[in-house]
# Entry
Amino acid sequence: MAASREGVRLAKSLRQKLPIHQSAPLCARGFASTRAAQNATVKPDSIADIESTSSFSTPQPSKDVLKAFEESQQQGQTERRLPGNRYQYHPPKYNRGPLHPVQAPPSSEPTARDFVPGPFSFPRLKHTYDSTIAPDLMTLTYNHTPPGTVPVESQKGNLRQWDGSSPYHKNRPSRGPRGGGSSRLGILERDISWHNIPEIEAVTINSYAPLAADNKEYLHVARAVVQAISGQFPDVTTVKHNVIHWGVRKGSKAGAKTTLRGAAAYDFVDKLVTLVLPKIKDWPGIKASSGDDAGNIAFGMSPAWMSYFPEIEFNYDMYPPKLMPGCDIFIHTTATSDRQGRLLMEALGFPFYGKVTH
# Structure
């Protein structure tokens, strides 16, 4: 141990006596700060033109310069703007025919006067109709006609044609039936094809409250019920004729009415078929003889059945039971006969009962 200690002392003494110059640091690592400090005195030519001061030290422009700039901008905009009364487009207020040089844009354009935004949802029943019901109606009502078959024209139900004695008869629609108009004869039933498959056009909900003339509470409840089940603010209906025996006076308020179209109509019909009508135990269905010979079907709901609507069922205490009115539901379809209307309604899920008269 003593010899080793003497060797260490001798090495220390020799290190102190002999000058040793180290060209490199003992630690081989290089630091960015050390290198930056060493290269601070050397300025490459690529950054020699960069200013030493930043843009934040630049003083703000004076108010006179800003005001002159704003005035020049406003003057330039005014010069480039077109007068609105001559060059800006305004859709026409009236439709003056297909040959008029100024035509109204379609209702899908945002600039149209009758533009309605949407649709924002796709009804479940409408999707079922497009994917299932419409193809099924086409299949059920398909009539195969072999190629080369001469069509048999029947005298009954055909509209009169023009004789071609005038050049104005060309491409003209068929003449109306004899007898002063087609309102008394009804519309002609057309065969179901790919371009005229029956579908729901609108749904009208009418609530009649005959006691509303003497007590306005009946009218308030009727409007609240119709608005709850339809989701639209209803219109107040009035009596058109005097009925002395019933005590009904002309002009008195008699109920509420609203009409649903588009997605709202399909949602209401879906709610009827799925939630409301299956809960009515004693409901036999729609009478098979109902209809207006034009494909529109109507049926009624008694006051006791109105509580099955989900909008009224969850808050039934808000509606007085003795003032609860019934309602009549009219389903307007694009069918051309009651037979086609019943076929569409059965496909949607409405049952029918009774004897079919037409």
Strands lie at 200-208, 235-238, 253-261, 286-287, 297-301, 327-333, 352-353. The first helix runs from residue 2 to 17. The first strand starts at residue 200 and ends at 208.
